[in-house]
Write a sequence for this structure.
């Protein structure tokens, strides 16, 4: 077994980009917010803020208590995506990026002489120098080097920020024994409790468990994969087609009412339709969700004939909204999701379809083309009128937005 993976994890990425681009923020505790509101939470925190115990998910009001000098800035997703592509190019200048895992994580495959520990460390140092020179001194990364991607990820977390850790094959499993279960990627609070029920409370006990025991503990094949990953093997995954997509949004204070929530839902639906068409997919199930203060969330879901037609999906949304709760409680977040995604080739033509499919396709194509060329709100359906400035581009952990399709500015306009 040899060193096969070099994992690059950018530290406090959103906050670091802000500090790099805005000198006044350097060296100060900052929190990045999806929307500027006291009731929202930090989606990123600088290391200066983390020193006060502030982290991703900390509510603004709580962050102010922990750090009275805290500075909050509104997220700029398009900037972070542009920087992301720049960082990939910089890392690529030193070695090939095998896979981009998120907006701030990527893994490189080590080959030949790179697999020698001394050379792998030299490569890591070269990447760090290139980043400092071409991205800026405030864009730091932690690098992990190990026999497989999983252990390289674990290694990258062992020395933050700006660290570099190697886990060599002969150091397994002893080098892992000093870690806690929660230090291992994929083991969260619930999984830790589940493992504890099976008398697994340490990494050493986890490593000692056999395949069947881990399969039972996880309740799925993921347990067997964990067995392999801890031993430096790269588990085999069958690549699944995209199963769902959607958008969610924390409502700004002025939209925290029934009219605002409904308008933002329309905006999210139209964004999701455009994104779905960019993948050449149709949805056969639509769901919506509204979160309220001091009362349970409201959800509705329904199967539909496979479609990518915005008008048809608006009809489905309007049918849902007829059942919007009659309440005085304040809505604070909404979401739209499409699932049961299929390609047109997988769908039999609906014999009872009233509107010709060709006309639907022409209309949708015209809308998308004009919005891509002249800006996202050039043409829109009326339900979204009161929310045109809401629901901007967001970055999920497992989805890096396409700036052309999902960006908030036009293309050639």
């Amino acid at each position: 077994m040899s060193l096969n993976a070099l994992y690059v994890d950018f530290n406090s990425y959103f906050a670091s980009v802000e500090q790099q681009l805005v000198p006044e923020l350097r060296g100060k505790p900052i929190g990045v917010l999806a929307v500027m509101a006291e009731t929202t939470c930090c989606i990123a925190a600088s290391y200066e803020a983390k020193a006060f115990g502030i982290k991703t998910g900390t509510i603004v009001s709580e962050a102010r208590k922990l750090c009275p000098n805290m500075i909050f800035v509104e997220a700029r997703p398009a900037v972070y995506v542009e920087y992301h592509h720049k960082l990939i190019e910089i890392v690529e200048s030193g070695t090939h990026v095998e896979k981009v895992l998120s907006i701030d994580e990527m893994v490189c495959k080590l080959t030949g002489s790179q697999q020698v520990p001394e050379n792998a460390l030299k490569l890591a140092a070269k990447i760090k120098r290139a980043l400092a020179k071409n991205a800026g001194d405030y864009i730091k990364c932690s690098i992990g080097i190990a026999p497989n991607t999983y252990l390289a990820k674990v290694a990258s977390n062992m020395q933050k920020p700006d660290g570099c850790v190697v886990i060599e094959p002969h150091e397994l499993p002893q080098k892992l024994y000093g870690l806690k279960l929660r230090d291992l990627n994929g083991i969260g609070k619930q999984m830790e409790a589940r493992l504890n029920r099976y008398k697994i409370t340490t990494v050493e006990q986890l490593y000692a468990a056999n395949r069947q025991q881990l399969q039972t503990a996880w309740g799925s094949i993921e347990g067997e994969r964990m067995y392999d990953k801890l031993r430096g093997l790269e588990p085999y995954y069958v690549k699944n087609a995209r199963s769902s997509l959607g958008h969610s949004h924390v409502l700004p204070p002025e939209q925290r009412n029934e009219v605002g929530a409904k308008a933002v839902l329309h905006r999210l639906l139209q964004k999701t339709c455009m994104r779905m068409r960019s993948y050449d997919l149709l949805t056969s199930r639509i769901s919506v969700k509204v979160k309220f203060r001091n009362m349970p969330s409201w959800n509705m879901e329904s199967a539909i004939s496979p479609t990518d037609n915005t008008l048809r999906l608006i009809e489905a949304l309007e049918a849902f909204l007829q059942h919007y709760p009659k309440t005085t409680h304040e809505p604070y977040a909404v979401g739209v999701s499409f699932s049961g995604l299929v390609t047109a080739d997988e769908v039999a033509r609906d014999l009872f379809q009233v509107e010709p499919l060709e006309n639907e396709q022409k209309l949708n194509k015209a809308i998308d083309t004009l919005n891509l060329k002249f800006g996202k709100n050039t043409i829109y359906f009326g339900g979204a009128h009161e929310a045109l400035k809401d629901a901007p581009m967001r970055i999920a952990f497992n989805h890096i937005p396409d700036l052309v399709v999902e960006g908030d500015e036009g293309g050639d306009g």
